[in-house]
Amino acid sequence: MEVVIKQASEDACIAGARIVARLVREKPTAVLGLATGGTPLPLYCELIRMHRDEGLDFSRTTTFNLDEYLGLEPTHPQSYHHFMRENLFDAINIPVENRHIPDGMTSDVPGFCRDYERRIRDAGGIDLQILGIGSDGHIGFNEPVSSFASRTRIKTLAKETLQDNARFFDGDPDKVPRHCITMGIGTIMDARRVLLLAFGESKSRAVAGMTEGPVASVLPASILQHHPDAKILLDNAAASELKRADYYRWVYENKPDWQRDA
Ligand code: PGA
Questions:
Q1: What angle do CA 232, 236, 240 make, to 5 degrees?
Q2: Domains of the chain, CATH where assigned
Q3: How far apart are CA 47 and CA 32, in angstroms?
Q4: What is the reported pLDDT for 189?
Q5: Is there a catalytic annotation at residue 138?
Q6: For residue range 199-245, what is the model confidence (pLDDT) as tens digits?
């Protein structure tokens, strides 16, 4: 794990966008794993700016989203289909047929999930997976004690997640769908590179557990300690409970220039 602590979330998102942009320039057919939620929004804004101002070309890029609520139409304002169109897809040039998001309206959840895994494999696997982290340590919607071997499947959201996401549903946790389809932890771990972003004090406990605590399924993100290429981009607030924050800053400041990508 490489822990990078930036002063502000905007700085971390710009660093994250540069990593995505470099990959897309070097490998135009790159397969990106995408996340929703508040965290990656400034990163998507920067990608849109790079597309507009610098001609960053996504015409051969393929994307797979981590998750979607079950029971929400793709046109529902809180569906992740809608989120992706509003916050990224409508403003850049990824072909529609190259964008994949779990279908929250499928009548055959297990069949859909098997097919989603097959589509990821057929695309050659995910080159770079963008992740946020839940305050309960989830990645994707893999809630505590999700199996580290899990693949794309249905999950029931934890009460903490319903509470966290109530802000998108008139502040009412009862309006948040109870179920979702999410890539599994095994699916996420198969990505060649992982970029996890976490900002704000509300994430500091999960970030400390993920980074410095034991690897344990009660804190799903802790499995990233076993990923060969995981970068954790934090702001100062999300890093505030890390015991070795000074060490991570020192390592980052002393990196050889050729190794710097954020
Ligand atoms: P957030 O969600 O970016 O809205 O905080 C993160 C997550 O639940 O993974």
A1: 90
A2: 7-198+210-234 (3.40.50.1360)
A3: 13
A4: 98
A5: yes
A6: 999 999 999 999 999 999 999 999 999 999 999 999 999 999 999 99
User: Rounded to an integer, what distance in angstroms lies between the CA atom of residue 156 and that of residue 23?
Assistant: 34
Give the containing element (helix H, strand E) for 136: none
81: tokens are 């289909």
**Tokens coding 112:** 């859909």
Q: Does pTM surpass 0.90?
A: yes
Find out whether 211 and 232 touch, Cβ atoms under 8 Å. Answer: yes
Index of the ligand 1 atom closest to the CA of residue 40? 3
Q: What is the pLDDT of residues 103-114, one digit of tens each?
A: 999 999 999 999
Please give the pLDDT value at position 82.
98
Burial bucket for residue 1 (CB in 10 Å: 0-12, 13-18, 19+): middle
Q: For residues 90 and 78, what is the distance between their CA atoms, to the nearest angstrom?
A: 16
Q: Which residue, chain included where needed, has tokens 């320039």?
A: 25
Sheet harboring 153-156: ordered strands across? 67-69, 179-182, 153-156
| Ligand 1 close to Cβ of residue 132 (< 6 A) | yes
| H helices present in the chain, as ranges | 9-26, 41-54, 80-87, 109-122, 159-165, 185-189, 204-212, 245-253
Q: From the CA of 164, how far away is ligand 1's center (Å)?
A: 8
Q: What whole-number distance in Å separates Cα of residue 133 and Cα of residue 115? A: 26
- Read off the tokens for 120: 């990821």
